[in-house]
Design a protein that fits this description.
Blueprint (H helix, E strand, L loop, with lengths): L18 H5 L4 E5 L2 E4 L2 E4 L5 E5 L4 H12 L15 H4 L3
Antiparallel strand pairs: 1-4, 2-3
């Protein structure tokens, strides 16, 4: 998940919402890259902000789980790729 404008110019300091909901999801892991803690809130602090990983019984279920989590996370200007994992489906 990335900030609007990445990889060029992007704004920092946007409050990230939904992390608490995602923290309770089974087999989902959030990796912080461009985040910071400001006034008790987690905010964006880089272009590449979060990496979201889902585990599953197979590749399609892992992809589905990851994107279920992504849809629960939001900040102003959030953007993310929707093709992650698709190449792996060709090998099934």
């Amino acid at each position: 998940m990335a900030s609007k404008g990445y990889p060029s110019d992007y704004e920092k300091g946007k409050e990230i919402k939904g992390l608490e909901k995602v923290s309770h999801m089974e087999d989902v892991f959030i990796f912080h890259a461009g985040t910071a803690l400001k006034d008790g809130q987690i905010v964006t602090n880089g272009g590449r902000v979060l990496g979201v990983t889902g585990l599953g019984e197979d590749i399609p279920r892992a992809i589905e789980r990851a994107y279920q989590a992504v849809k629960k996370i939001f900040w102003e200007g959030v953007q993310y790729r929707t093709d992650i994992g698709q190449k792996a489906l060709c090998w099934l």
